[in-house]
């Protein structure tokens, strides 16, 4: 039996398929691929359970699922996209036989982490900072990098250059040898 790990996806094919996914996203939902809005949608829906005033005039009001027709709501589709990415990643990892191991050596070296809980805390904090930055920039890497670049948006080009610069700088800081 051929395991998933024995076959590699062509990055060109996968990138082309993601790029082609923009077409139905624009035609059917009047939106591109993005993920950071889905977290705002989830937070807004959670806040709505506690305070009905969230529906009127708050930051969350435009992201709520029931302010537009249900199936045409682009934020519903973005939430589905994020859930699908997570489920697809889990499915792919299981098919490849990937096992959870201890803390990766790069994390042990860079941050001297010894426990998984410390690693999870760092990952949560990093994800929070990343999401905050994505909302501050008006979109995430998929929103700017895929949708914005497909539309030739200058702001997205600037954001993508900053993303690459930040990624390269982070890689140098995390992998430097003492």
Mind explaining what this structure looks like?
- The protein is mostly helical and 178 residues long.
- It has a domain at 1-99.
- Helices cover 66% and strands 0% of the residues.
- The protein is built from seven helices and no strands.
- The longest helix is centred in the middle third of the chain and has 23 residues, at 74-96.
- The mean pLDDT is 80.
Précis, in short:
By secondary structure, the protein is an all-alpha fold.
Helical content class: 55-70%
Q: What percent strand?
A: under 5%
What's the average pLDDT? 80
What is the alpha-carbon Rg in Å?
19 Å
The main β sheet shows up as: none
Termini Cα gap:
44 Å
Number of strands: 0
- What coarse outline follows from CA principal-axis ratios? globular
Tell me the layout of helices and strands.
Elements: H1 11-29, H2 36-50, H3 74-96, H4 105-111, H5 116-136, H6 141-150, H7 154-175
Helix pairs in contact: 2-3, 6-7
Characteristics:
mainly alpha, 178 residues, 7 helices, single chain, 0% strand, 66% helix
């Amino acid at each position: 039996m051929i395991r998933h790990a024995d076959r590699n996806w062509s990055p060109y094919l996968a990138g082309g398929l993601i790029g082609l996914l923009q077409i139905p996203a624009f035609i059917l939902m009047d939106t591109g691929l993005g993920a950071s809005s889905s977290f705002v949608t989830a937070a807004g829906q959670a806040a709505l359970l506690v305070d009905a005033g969230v529906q009127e005039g708050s930051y969350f009001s435009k992201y709520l699922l029931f302010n537009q027709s249900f199936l045409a709501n682009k934020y519903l589709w973005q939430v589905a996209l994020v859930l699908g990415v997570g489920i697809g990643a889990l499915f792919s990892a299981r098919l490849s036989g990937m096992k959870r191991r201890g803390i990766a050596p790069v994390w042990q070296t860079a941050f001297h982490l010894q426990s998984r809980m410390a690693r999870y805390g760092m990952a949560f904090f990093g994800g929070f900072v990343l999401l905050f930055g994505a909302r501050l920039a008006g979109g995430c890497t998929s929103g700017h990098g895929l949708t914005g670049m497909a539309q030739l948006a200058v702001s997205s080009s600037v954001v993508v250059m900053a993303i690459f610069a930040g990624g390269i700088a982070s890689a140098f800081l995390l992998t430097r040898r003492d």
